[in-house]
Amino acid sequence: MTTPANPMQLPQKSCALRVVPQPSDANVHGDVFGGWIMAQVDIAGSIPSSRRANGRVATIAVNSFVFKQPVFVGDLLSFYADIVKTGKTSITVEVEVYAQRLSLAQEVVKVTEATLTYVATGSDRRPRLLPALE
Ligand SMILES: CC(C)(COP(=O)(O)OP(=O)(O)OC[C@H]1O[C@@H](n2cnc3c(N)ncnc32)[C@H](O)[C@@H]1OP(=O)(O)O)[C@@H](O)C(=O)NCCC(=O)NCCS
């Protein structure tokens, strides 16, 4: 059997998060719940945000969220998170999710793309100015 041509590769940049969905993350049809993916995307986006804020952040908005392809139990999911905009207290992050299918390890599929905004917060949970870049 020949290997199918696969033009899609994982991005050549550091990955915020990698995770394999389990049977408990699936619906009755065996596909992974969108809500589970949204939670992982939120975690992935919070990683560069917390780093930029040098402390705690809260998610204020999910600006866009597209499920482009289904996710299956056993897929290896890689989450890439890039800061695309910062304001006085806010950080907007684009998250892209790629799946490597269990049955076809070489196959890479972009399954989700989303944009979320986080706000740097203090211990009082109120907005806090972002620290200056060094
Ligand atoms: C995050 C929180 C502390 C912000 O407080 P707030 O008084 O609403 O914030 P502000 O109106 O001062 O806005 C703060 C920043 O968010 C931005 N912002 C506000 N609403 C936004 C929206 N709908 N989309 C994108 N950015 C938004 C503002 O433009 C501002 O950015 P800037 O300082 O860079 O200019 C507050 O909204 C909160 O606690 N929300 C709940 C957070 C949470 O629990 N998230 C988890 C999911 S339940």
TrEMBL record:
Domain of life: Bacteria
SUPFAM superfamilies cross-referenced by the UniProt entry: Thioesterase/thiol ester dehydrase-isomerase (SSF54637)
Database matches in CDD domains: BFIT_BACH (cd03442)
Family annotation (InterPro entries): Cytosol_ACT, HOTDOG_ACOT, HotDog_dom_sf, Thioestr_dom
Any single GO CC term annotated in Swiss-Prot or TrEMBL for this entry: cytosol
Hydrolase keyword on record: yes
Pfam families: 4HBT
One record GO biological process: fatty acid catabolic process
Statement: the UniProt record of this protein carries the keyword Hydrolase: yes
Alphabetical keyword list: Hydrolase
MF terms in GO: long-chain fatty acyl-CoA hydrolase activity
Domain HotDog ACOT-type: 11-124
Family stated for the protein in its record: Belongs to the acyl coenzyme A hydrolase family.
Name used for this protein in its record: Acyl-CoA thioesterase
Species in which this protein is naturally found: Paraburkholderia acidicola
